[in-house]
From TrEMBL:
EC number(s) on file: 1.5.1.54
InterPro entries in alphabetical order: FAD-linked_oxidoreductase-like (IPR029041), Mehydrof_redctse-like (IPR003171), MTHF_reductase_bac (IPR004620)
Catalysed reactions, semicolon-separated: (6S)-5-methyl-5,6,7,8-tetrahydrofolate + NAD(+) = (6R)-5,10-methylene-5,6,7,8-tetrahydrofolate + NADH + H(+)
Name the record gives this protein: Methylenetetrahydrofolate reductase
Species annotation: Pseudobutyrivibrio ruminis
One GO CC annotation: cytosol
Metabolic or biological pathway: One-carbon metabolism; tetrahydrofolate interconversion; Amino-acid biosynthesis; L-methionine biosynthesis via de novo pathway
């Protein structure tokens, strides 16, 4: 996948989440059918922080890979996992022909005690990456944070751990969502100086409802620039206008990134194929 993707200067990929309930799979498959018609370079599938729903991630990634013949990337978190758990998920993925993972630490799950969190087997994504590199044949990607990870002491320390991820075997980074491209440009410049040589894919989340700001965006720790805050204030009470303005904002972000030489874009598409299609036709 890496070879094909980075042979070109640009790529487009999507992130989806697996269904929470068993009876939601059919609908999720329909969503994936529509997304694959947009011919993404790959589709990534999220993973529950505690690992309890890993089978659903594998099932959805398998559908993407084997039924839609689109490259699938499975997210994998280690915060609640032992080495055996990680090897078991690896076997499940390999059995269905999915060989690319996004290796993450994950956030502390709600049902995990502080003691369990402090004694976790894999303290950081770097430990998972090293383990996967030494024990599996998986292609490994990792996360990065244009505005630094909320727990990081400084941008410099975050960049040093990012370099460690690369040294441990990560072949590509996908960035946390951001709304101000200037943050991303500053970040990639610093990453370059810190010795990051592998591709950094820009993560874009279209904001189509103000609720997203209160949930996903706050959790991610991304800042909301005045322009986007004004859009939310102006159209917050009018869902159709908010959706339209949010999609336009994402399109402008992507166009500007591409104009400035950032070719690799990952859309956090929240299982919304219509919105994703609207963006794809305008970038
Ligand atoms: P780490 O890289 O371990 O970083 C966490 C903190 O520890 C940072 O402050 C970092 O600077 C520091 N650090 C890193 N390495 C070391 C080290 N060796 N020693 C000391 N400190 C270190 N969450 C999910 O639950 N499921 C998903 O599917 C999911 N997908 C995501 C996809 C993307 C593209 C991104 C950006 C995030 C995703 N997340 C997901 C959220 C992610 O799990 C959280 O942001 C989590 O808090 C950190 O995970 P990480 O892998 O970035 O952690």
């Amino acid at each position: 996948m890496f070879k094909d993707m980075f042979a070109n200067d640009s790529s487009l990929s999507f992130e989806v989440f697996p269904p929470k309930k068993d009876d939601e799979f059919e609908n999720c498959y329909k969503v994936l059918d529509s997304l694959s018609e947009l011919k993404p370079d790959f589709i990534s599938v999220t993973y529950g922080a505690g690992g309890s729903r890993s089978k659903k991630t594998v099932e959805i990634a398998s559908y993407i890979q084997n039924e839609l013949h689109t490259d699938a990337m499975a997210h994998m978190t280690c915060v609640g996992s032992t080495s055996e758990d990680i090897l078991a998920v690896t076997r499940d993925l390999e059995a269905v022909g999915v060989n690319h993972v996004l290796a993450l630490r994950g956030d502390k799950p709600r049902d995990m005690s502080d003691e369990q969190f402090n004694q976790r087997v894999f303290p950081h994504a770097t430990d998972l990456i090293r383990f996967l590199n030494e024990n599996t044949k998986l292609d490994i990607s990792a996360s990065c944070y244009p505005e630094k990870h909320p727990e990081a002491m400084s941008m410099d320390s975050d960049l040093a751990f990012m370099k460690m991820k690369q040294d441990m075997g990560a072949k590509m980074f996908i960035s946390q969502l951001f709304f101000d491209n200037a943050d991303f440009y500053r970040f990639t410049e610093r990453a370059d100086k810190a010795g990051i040589t592998i591709p950094i894919v820009a993560g874009i989340m279209p904001i189509t409802s103000t609720k997203q700001i209160g949930s996903t965006v706050t959790l991610a720790g991304s800042s909301v620039p005045k322009k986007l805050a004004d859009i939310c204030a102006r159209y917050g009470e009018s869902p159709d206008d908010m959706r339209k303005a949010g999609i336009e904002y994402a399109i402008d972000q992507i166009r500007d990134l591409r104009k400035c030489g950032v070719g690799h874009i990952h859309i956090y598409c929240m299982n919304k194929p219509k919105m994703t299609a609207e963006i794809c036709k305008s970038i």
